[in-house]
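U., I forgot to send this yesterday:
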Amino acid sequence: MEKYVVKQQVRGINTKLFANDIVFNGSDKNVLISVISSIIQHYNPDDTLANVPTILDLKNDNITDEIVDKIRLLSTKSVLLQINNSIYADSQKVELIKKLKGYGYKIITIINKEDSIFTLSKILSDYIKLDINNIPDISNTNFVCKKIAYNVNSAEEYQLAESVGMEYYEGEYVSTSENIIITKYKYSNTNFMYLLKLINEKGAEEDIKRAITQDCLLSAQIIRLSNSPYYVNENKHVESIDDAIEKIGIDAIKKWLLLLQFSRSDSTPEEMIQTSYHRAIFCKNLVKEAKTKNISKSEAYIIGLFSTLDVLAGNTMSKELTGLNLGDTIENALIYRDGEGGKLLNFVKSYEEGNNKRIKEYADYFKLKIDEVDKIYIDSIKAVSNLWKSMSQYGGII
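Result:
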């Protein structure tokens, strides 16, 4: 089932966009986790709004150690954490808020008209948020933080917010709210269940790495995450799956994989996942045997693995490659079928289609004999089949 939420913009006095507020009813933990996962998965460095933080509304029931661990996957610059003033009456919740504050996250506190003003709300709040139609009396309260007015739905309410010294505004007068779907990517059921088993085992780091490199969408998301602002302190952009895993760290990846439990698709195209992994092995082994130095085995592997990325993600290839920084050889191959990588991908597709004329042309280009290509193809098929059989015992569907 897809998860629907509402996105509303928060703007400053100068109308500059300050944040995107994600609003959802109730305290469904799974919705919150899906929002966190979506922030990670859909980061787009070419989006001019990419650095605008998202406001995450933490309902009272959702402030737990588990949620704190998941929030820590997000950059402190990418989110603002919104809580209700009533939370400050709960000492256990306060300790978790203090912990998040200590990690560097900014706190927005919603203060209602009937609320008592807790001392902690003044200490821990970076922003306070007030309903413009029900502003509490805070004239005698020493708040040094900035103020956000919400429910600003008319010109009169906007003028009122200005007159009482609000710095930020949210409501239909400022921007129209937008219903959005927290989309789910179609990860392999078999591989994903296998990974969930591995993350609970000690000493399984190498197995986790191998399992990630077998899944097209997981690999793309790991590379995208490693090149995102969540790891902004790292200057080097990575171009391989292994480098991405090393940069993020296996402990953070384990937590991130748990997020995907709540956001992956229930209708997983297992055959397409297998096709992408087969192409990855086929491409890598073709290059291994070919007489070419214009493309590496790791580049060939990614070209094959990501050749179905657009179909699996339901998006254009160029859009899905945004933020991966894979280099010209791989991007030209996947987007334009150009260059050495493009020839390699065309070779693989010609073989799959049984186009003997094109197969011979590409075999001659890469200086390979047809019987060598046949053997490489069959060996690759066997490798995929054996892998899926070995993983299926962990709850996957074949």
